[in-house]
Amino acid sequence: MTIGLRFAAVEAMTESASSTHFPLEGNVNCIALFNHEEIGSVSTTGAQSSLIPSLLERLSPTPALLAQSIAKSLLISADMGHAVHPNYTSKHEENHKPCINGGIVIKTNAKQRYASDAIGSFTVKKLLERKGGRVQEYEVRNDMCVDQPFFPFGPYTNPLNI
Fold it and tell me: What's the pTM?
């Protein structure tokens, strides 16, 4: 996650804390900012470490309450997307070419190399719609190598990669 996305996440958390539209009681809102994403997040302090699963298990009084919390959760795995390079337009699907300033990019891949799913994508699209934002759909070609952002928590989240 770049410094710009980190700033946006902290700003959003700060605004939500004073919002009357989002009840804080009974919710645990958090931002997880990790080191070493460029090497696959596999370090002891990276996103694929045991930090978040361990923290969730320790904060939950019972396994049943942990399961309920996970079912109600939403994880957004955010990173900067790259627009189409003019010298390599053939590397993109015809209808999936991210444009500079074209809006938030939701990345998907048939091999599920990204954390995006239908529920999370729908949620982000609706939130953007409310704010007048735009969405770009980006489907990576199956024959192309994909950078794999972290998806460390397995059953602990309902993830979305944007």
Answer: 0.69
DSSP letter for each residue of the chain: --HHHHHHHHHHHHHHHT-SSS--TT--------S-GGGTS-STTSTTSSHHHHHHHHH-SSHHHHHHHHHT--EEE--PPPPPPGGGGGGS-TT----TTS-EEEEEETT--S---HHHHHHHHHHHHHHT--EEEEEEPTTS-------TTGGG--EEE-
CATH at residue 61: 3.40.630.10
How confident is the model at residue 133, as a pLDDT? 92
The Cα 139–Cα 69 span in angstroms is: 30
With a cut of 60, say whether residue 42 has pLDDT above it.
yes
Q: Considering all CA atoms of the chain, what is the largest pairwise distance in Å, rounded to the nearest integer?
A: 55
Q: For residue range 89-143, list pLDDT tens digits in order.
A: 888 888 888 888 888 888 887 777 677 888 888 988 998 999 899 999 888 777 7
Structural domain tally of the chain? 1
| Domain with 44 in it | 3-161
Closest CA to 115 of 66, 87, 140, 78: 78
Q: Do residues 128 and 122 lie in contact, with contact meaning Cβ atoms separated by under 8 Å?
A: no
